[in-house]
Amino acid sequence: MTDLELFDAWMVGDRRAADELFERHYEAIDRFFRNKVVQGSEDLVQKTLTACVEVHERFRGEASFRTYLFAIAHNVLRAHYRARRRESSRLEFTEISAEDLAPGPSTMVRARREQQLLLESLRQIPLDYQVVLELYYWEELSGSAIAKIIGLRENTVRSRIRKGKLLLEKKMKALALTPEEYRSTIEDLEAWARSIHAGGEPPAGDSDGETPGEDPD
Predict the structure, then answer these.
(1) Range of 128's domain?
(2) Is residue 210 in some structural domain?
(3) pLDDT at residue 74 greater than cutoff 70
(4) Number of domains forming the structure of the chain
(5) Distance of alpha carbon 133 from alpha carbon 204, whole angstroms
(6) pLDDT tens readout for residues 83-103
(7) Per-residue model confidence as pLDDT tens digits over 105-162
(8) Which domain of life is it from (predicted)?
(9) Percent of the chain surpassing pLDDT 70
(10) Which of 70, 87, 127, 165 has a CA between 20 and 30 Å from the CA of residue 146?
(11) What residues contact residue 155 under an 8 Å CB cut-off, 6+ apart?
(12) Average pLDDT for residues 161-184, to the nearest whole number?
């Protein structure tokens, strides 16, 4: 069954359809939080699923259920960090990083130094840029889908992807232990990103050249 079919079944009382729907997307939502919060990511996943149950009537099928669920997760993440800061009104996610908000190493699986470099670098660029890059590279979402998730215009999202990649490259260059390590990671960035999505398996050979989502240019 498609997501929409499962959702419709859930709406008429089929709890098994809801369970299958959430199980289908659990891993992606867990991945969304795990490189942004060092502790408590499981709680944020549960808050996302609970919020989805509470506001499910808002889903109209205008975007995919996956996009809708990521939008809830994005709101949960921002609320989580604002609740932890007394001066929450001054919390600017285009300037502050996940590392600033929750210092510590990523809890995501990493088998190679290139993966570690990519994860560390993502955590050290501003959170808003980290979010769009991870949705774009890991989840292979289009600019229009990401725009729906974060509530901005698609052109703004494309601009953030471009700027985010530049910030990421600069951060990776600063954190790399050797020039070779930096080149290995940046020259096959999409393949290394996909390897993290796949649970830690390093890329085999060269990248196939395919662009995730759609071209931000």
Answers:
(1) 3-197
(2) no
(3) yes
(4) 1
(5) 22
(6) 877 655 578 999 999 999 988
(7) 887 866 788 999 999 999 999 999 999 999 999 999 999 999 999 999 999 999 999 9
(8) Bacteria
(9) 88
(10) 87
(11) none
(12) 96
Which residues are CB-contacts of 116 (< 8 A; sequence separation ≥ 6)?
A: 110
The structure tokens listed for 53 are 């149950």
Amino acid at 104: G
Supply the CATH number for residue 24's domain.
1.20.140.160
Could you tell me if 127 and 93 are in contact, meaning their C-beta atoms sit under 8 angstroms apart? yes
SS3 for 204? coil
Compute the distance between CA of residue 134 and CA of residue 179 in angstroms, rounded to an integer: 24
Please report, in angstroms and rounded to a whole number, the separation of the first and last CA atoms in the chain. Answer: 35
Does 202 reside within a domain? no
The phi-psi region of residue 152 (left if phi > 0; otherwise alpha if psi is between -120 and 50; otherwise beta) is beta
Angle 145-169-105 from CA coordinates, rounded to 5°: 85
Q: What secondary structure, in 3-state letters, does 17-46 show?
A: HHHHHHHHHHHHHHHHHHCCCCCCHHHHHH
Instruction: Find residue 97's DSSP bridge partners.
Output: 126
Residue 213 lies in a domain: no
186 located within any domain: yes
Question: How many residues make up the chain in this entry?
Answer: 217
Residue 67's alpha-carbon distances to 73, 133, 145, in angstroms, are 10, 15, 6
Distance of CA 47 to the CA centre of its chain: 16
Beta bridge partners of 126: 97
